[in-house]
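Z., the sequence and structure:
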Amino acid sequence: MLDEATRTAILKLREKGHGSRRIATALKVARETVREVIRSGTAKVPPMERDEAAEPWREQILELHARFEGHLGRVHEELVKKGATFSYQALTAFCRKHGIGHTPAPPAGHYDFPPGTEMQHDTSPHWANIAGVDTKVQSASLVLCFSRMIFFQQYLRFTRFECKAFLAEAIAYFGGAADVCMVDNTHVVVASGTGADMVPAPEMVAFGERYGFHFEAHEKGDANRSARVEAPFNRIDKGFLVGGDFKDLADLNRQARAKCDEWNAKFSNKLHASRRELFAVERPHLKPLPLHVPEVYQLHVRTVDAEGYVHINRIRYSAPYRLIGRQLEVRETMDRVELYDGPRTVAAHARVPGPLDTRVTDPAHRPPRGEGRVKQGPPPEEATLLEAEPRLVGYLALLKKHAGGRRSPLRRLLSMLRDYPRVPFMAAVTGAEQYGLCDLDRLERMVLRQIAHDYFILPIDRIEPENDDE
C-alpha cells in the first residue's frame, strides 16, 4: 500500500497533465495503482477493511475475559472448546485493537527541577565481591535533581537507622539539602499511606526538620517521578560493582565515594556540562548545614551477661567485668559501639558488621591474670536455716541443686521453719529428703497434715447442739 507522500506525488503529477503510464514509470509503481489513486482523488491512505475471525465471538470473549480475570490463555482454551478456529495470537491482537483488558501506556512525563528544589533517594539490591566472597548489598543513592550530583554507598542491610546515617553523610557531601526529598513508598521512611497521602515516620520527620527538608513519595507505579535516582543504579552495578575487588565494607564505601567524585567531575554529553559545573549553580540554593549536627546513632538497652559481653545484632562487645549483671545504655553508630553507665562512657568498640556471633574483646575489660571473679559465699537464707536447724543440711543441698541458683525456695523454706512447729516440720522434711521431693507446696501440705488434729480442733462452745425433734 502506498504511503501518503507517494499518493500526493501522483495527484500533483496528474494535475500537471501527465498520464498514468508516465507517472507509474517515474514513481516506479504499478499503473493500475496510479489509476486507483487518481480515481480516489485524495492522498489519505484508505483504511484496511479486513474481516476479523474473532469478531463473531466478541460477546463470548468479553464474558470469558471477566470470568478468568483477564487470563487470555484460559479464554482461548474455552473458545476452542466452543468451536472457535482462530489462533491465540489472533485473540490477543483482537483484544489489543478493541481495548479489551488492555490500556495503552500513557506518554512519559517530563519534569523540570529548579536549583535546590528537590533531591531523590532510593535503594537497590546488588552483589559485590567483598574479601573474595560474593555478598549481597543494598546500594543507597541520593541525587540532586537539577545538577544530577550523585552520592551512593553500600550497606549489608538498610533499616531506618542506616537510612538516616546515609542521608546525613550524603547531605554533608553536598554541603546542604534541597527543599524536598522524594522517595518511593518504602517502609523505611513511610509510617502510613502512599503517594500524596504518605505520612512519614515521626523520627524521619524530625530528621528532615534538622536539615530543613521534608519527605514526599511518588505514586505507586510512577517510576518516571524518581527517574533521577533510578537511572544511575545500572551504572553503579555495571560500572562500579561488577569486577571490583573490595577488602571489606569500609573499603567498598571508600571506593564508592571516590567513584562519586569521578562521575561528578566528568563531562556529560547529555547535560552539556559536568555535574560539578551545574552544582556550582545549585549550591547557593541548598539549605545550609546546621551549626551542629549530632552523629546518628541507634539506642539499645542491654544487660552485661555472665561472660562480660553485651549483644548487638548478634555481635558480642565486651564491657568491664565489674559491670556484669548491670543494665547499660548502648549507642550504635555506623563506626562505633559505645557503652554508657548512666551519663558516663565505660567502653567503646569499633563496630563490626559480621560474621555473626563474633566476640569483640578489650583486654582492659578483663580482670588481671589470677584475679578471677570473686566467689560469693552461701546466700544469707542458707546460713540462717543451718544456724536455726543444723539437720537441714542434707535437704538444703538437694533443694539448692534443684533451684539452680534461685534464692526464692530458700526464703520460703525459712518462712515455713519459722511458722510451723519444729517436730512435725522436721518429720516432713525427713520424708521429703528420703524421696527427693523438692516441691515446697507438697512439703507444706505434709506439715499441715501432721498438725491438723493438734491445732485445728473446734472449741466445744462452737459445736452446734443436736436437734431433739429429729
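The two ends are 125 Å apart (CA to CA). Residues 249-265 form the longest helix (17 residues).

Let me know what you think.
H.
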